[in-house]
Amino acid sequence: MELRSMEAIRRVSEETGKALWEIVLETDMDDRMVSRESSMEKMRQIWRAMVDASEIYTGSRRSSSGMAGGDGLKMRQYAEAGDTIGGSFTAEVIAEALAMGESNACMRRIVAAPTAGSCGTMPAVLLPLCRREQIPEDKMLEALYAAAGIAAVIASRACISGAAGGCQAEVGSASAMAAGALVTLRGGSFDQICQAVAMALKMVLGLACDPVAGLVEVPCIKRNVMGAMNAIAAADMALAGIRSQIPVDEVIDAMGEVGRRLPVELRETALGGLAATPTGKAVKKRLRQITGVKS
Prior knowledge:
13 helices
């Protein structure tokens, strides 16, 4: 089926008794004309790439700009000291988000989920939970399929790129995907997945995309931390029975409309927001002097 509406997917789920993840799996099989085993192997490769990216991170690398690198290691060390405010799990989530974002900035292998700039949000919530609860790999794949379906609907109804819709479309979409994945892992209902997605997106509506010097490093990496924590909050609220007053498809539509109304300066042009601060401009000037690029 065409993944253009959470409501349409819900109707198919009710008619067939199939979960969101399985509907998305079968859609992938149809679209790419592959077997179930082939589709799942592709998703397995994606999951293992996330795991590998986390395992090979050392914190020793720095991005070419010098703005990114080492913070994931600092957070891991802080977490290991055992004196965090939010507890060990929260600290691990933060560390993973930072590490994955830095890996992207340092040209390591990452999974765009849904974009490279938002690559830290999904792994940040899934990897620590998988390790803590020893969740089987097949269950993690189900969560990834659910997240992929959510991303497909958002991309169809709104957008997933910062240039088109601001950071709400990148980290916001990643946060919604992660929230849906978490509810899936907890055995939540289709409706609870929709509530989590709606709440995750609602909480980041209007988020600007303002990369300093045009690089997906500042503030992008730390916004992945926000996206991960937002996803956990949205998933827990949905599992608690809390509902979004605005239906999920309408929230997605609103995100698209907000994105279209954002001024061009706040859509990945590095002309507004943090990129336009005195420090942001100074960083841009410094990097252009180093690279020899003229203003």
